[in-house]
Amino acid sequence: MILETQSEMAVIGTAGDGEQALRLALELRPDVLLLDVRMPGRDGLWTLAEIAKRGLIDAGDVHVLMLTTFDIGEYVDEALDQGASGFLLKSASYEELLAAVRAAATGNAALSPRVARRVIDGYVAGHREETGNYTDQERLSDLTPRELEILGLLGQGFNNAEIASRLVITEHTVKSHVSRLLAKTGCRDRGQAAALARRVRPQGSDP
């Protein structure tokens, strides 16, 4: 309803879940795709990843804006890594939403103030690690309890399938958690994360 009040915008499709959103995106090739992070079945992050795999984001065919009512710390890193053009909270004003759509349509980034703050903090954290002024404990400070648990299991040498079985979650969920914890800790790969885990022994590590 908000978008259709604008003469230069047209809503060409709506979807109730991630798989339907993917099908419509491939069929209709919208200039901008608004994706809810949480949807029935496949979620918005899965949909974003599938669109990215097909090259639509790199080619500039589709610009994706992610929407969420939830804590941005759980999702923002993965969404931006996958090529999302923006990330907005559902509490954003009408003006912020319209501005974000316009920005995304022209290939520009659109971040809510809270998300922008997180991106800046991430840059600062990365700079601190590059200069060596970043302790192991500080690198863990932004991890959720689940991410700490998975980091501990990485330190014990478990692969994604083994972690999924141990925690009774899907491999896709494990992969998402690993991606986020790598971004948050500044680790380049699983090997660095495992080494960090062995040094600090977070929750999930054996004594």
Automatic annotation (TrEMBL):
<feature type="domain" description="HTH luxR-type">
    <location>
        <begin position="136"/>
        <end position="201"/>
    </location>
</feature>
<keyword id="KW-0238">DNA-binding</keyword>
<dbReference type="InterPro" id="IPR039420">
    <property type="entry name" value="WalR-like"/>
</dbReference>
<dbReference type="InterPro" id="IPR058245">
    <property type="entry name" value="NreC/VraR/RcsB-like_REC"/>
</dbReference>
<dbReference type="InterPro" id="IPR016032">
    <property type="entry name" value="Sig_transdc_resp-reg_C-effctor"/>
</dbReference>
<dbReference type="Pfam" id="PF00072">
    <property type="entry name" value="Response_reg"/>
</dbReference>
<feature type="modified residue" description="4-aspartylphosphate">
    <location>
        <position position="36"/>
    </location>
</feature>
<dbReference type="GO" id="GO:0006355">
    <property type="term" value="P:regulation of DNA-templated transcription"/>
</dbReference>
<dbReference type="GO" id="GO:0003677">
    <property type="term" value="F:DNA binding"/>
</dbReference>
<keyword id="KW-0804">Transcription</keyword>
<dbReference type="InterPro" id="IPR011006">
    <property type="entry name" value="CheY-like_superfamily"/>
</dbReference>
<keyword id="KW-0805">Transcription regulation</keyword>
<protein>
    <submittedName>
        <fullName>Response regulator transcription factor</fullName>
    </submittedName>
</protein>
<feature type="domain" description="Response regulatory">
    <location>
        <begin position="1"/>
        <end position="105"/>
    </location>
</feature>
<keyword id="KW-0597">Phosphoprotein</keyword>
<dbReference type="GO" id="GO:0000160">
    <property type="term" value="P:phosphorelay signal transduction system"/>
</dbReference>
<dbReference type="InterPro" id="IPR001789">
    <property type="entry name" value="Sig_transdc_resp-reg_receiver"/>
</dbReference>
<dbReference type="InterPro" id="IPR000792">
    <property type="entry name" value="Tscrpt_reg_LuxR_C"/>
</dbReference>
<dbReference type="Pfam" id="PF00196">
    <property type="entry name" value="GerE"/>
</dbReference>
